[in-house]
Amino acid sequence: xxxxxLAAFAFAPMFVNAIPTRRASSSGFLLQNGVDAINQNNQxxxxxxxxxxxxxxxxxxxxxxxxxxxGKFVLTACSSSLICAALPLVNSAGTSIACTTQSDVDSRxxxxxxxxxxxxxxxxxxxxxxxxxxxxxxxxxTSxxxxxxNGQSSLTLLSSVIAKGFAQNGQxxxxxxxxxxxxxxxxxxxxxxxxxxxxxxxxNGQQIKGGSCNPATMGSIPSTANMPSAKFVSPVxxxxxxxxxxxxxxxxxxxxxTGFFTNADSNYFAAPQQLDSNGQIKGHSHxxxxxxxxxxxxxxxxxxxxxxxxxxxxKADSKGQxxxxxxxxxxxxxxxxxxxxxxxxxxxxxxxxxxxxSLDDAVYFTVVASGTKTNGTTKAVASS
Length: 384
Ligand SMILES: *[C@@H]1O[C@H](CO)[C@@H](O)[C@H](O)[C@H]1NC(C)=O
Ligand SMILES: *[C@@H]1O[C@H](CO)[C@@H](O)[C@H](O)[C@H]1NC(C)=O
Ligand SMILES: *[C@@H]1O[C@H](CO)[C@@H](O)[C@H](O)[C@H]1NC(C)=O
Ligand SMILES: *[C@@H]1O[C@H](CO)[C@@H](O)[C@H](O)[C@H]1NC(C)=O
What we know:
Elements: E1 16-17, H1 26-45, E2 58-61, E3 64-69, E4 72-76, E5 83-88, E6 95-100, H2 102-112, H3 130-134, E7 229-234, E8 240-242, E9 247-254, E10 256-257, E11 281-292, E12 308-312, E13 321-326, E14 333-339, E15 342-343, E16 362-368
Parallel strand pairs: 8-16, 10-11
Antiparallel strand pairs: 1-6, 2-3, 3-4, 5-6, 7-9, 9-13, 11-12, 11-14, 11-15, 14-16
Helix pairs in contact: 1-2
Organism: Serpula lacrymans var. lacrymans (strain S7.3) (Dry rot fungus)
Keywords: Signal
Protein name: Carbohydrate-binding module family 19 domain-containing protein
């Protein structure tokens, strides 16, 4: 790599820190530097000599070193066979702009572990703005490339998180079973999947009744030793309880760290499933009670209709139970009561293996007019 020097550019060193040094742990900044360099190089591809710029800004335009003078880039060619590019710094956080070879750019970025993720991706996908990504300001360190080097604000997929197994469709393997359909495949973790269903809005944290496409990754999956399970303590299966009388539902729950719930109107499905320090899903449960035509109903219920629904947002008590008051009770009839165990952003719990016992419970009970014999273990509670 050669650092181009030019006498006429006395005030403009050709090797400049494009992003001022940020405080970052030595283990953290390398990867982020690589990601930053990729983003800047992608951004440079969209620049021309007519792009506007701000004083002090350095960039690469048409593979030449570019410095902003009076709102316009002034170009200085690199020597033949060299190109202008952003490179990750090695000893501190940040990037540099230099004249070098394409292979040097590639190997320096590869050494950080960063990758552009998708070979078909062009610079147009980055939203890092040129002025912020490349402005030099020693006085006010920018944080435009975001976090502490862990990739969580980068618009570029880190090579360390690419699931290479997603690239094969599952067909013709020694584990294949007849009738299996080919899986959709991806070499970039499906990060842009929702662009393939442009008729669907992004879920974007909302509960969109017409349907949507959710771009959040699935997240942390607990071990088989930490799968949620639940069993109703009251009412129990086949109980008979009095009509229009408040009662308390008790639910025993295990294998999940209860008491975690996010805003369901603004953060629905909006973050990956997360685990607590014991490896259990941080989440919460719900109960839903649906009216049946009879206790022997054989047709599927209509999920848009239910007699009672409640999120059980508390932490389970010392008995490992959660509670819900069904104030005013239920009219006479047959009912199905189910749990919905979810992660904190309301997505159904995801576990490590396909074959497992139910993560939820369902019981069936009958509500009868007062005066009829009841046998519920259900505790009546005062109406409020
Ligand atoms: C499939 O093949 C792999 C190696 O190619 C082997 O490790 C695995 O045990 C095989 N699985 C089955 C179900 O035969
Ligand atoms: C309650 O009574 C119903 C109807 O007599 C019966 O089918 C059911 O098994 C009883 N349930 C319990 C828990 O005793
Ligand atoms: C249910 O109602 C009882 C009596 O009003 C009250 O003490 C209890 O805290 C309520 N439980 C829940 C889970 O709301
Ligand atoms: C329960 O309430 C419903 C109306 O909510 C009413 O139609 C029904 O007769 C009541 N049943 C009893 C046993 O009071």
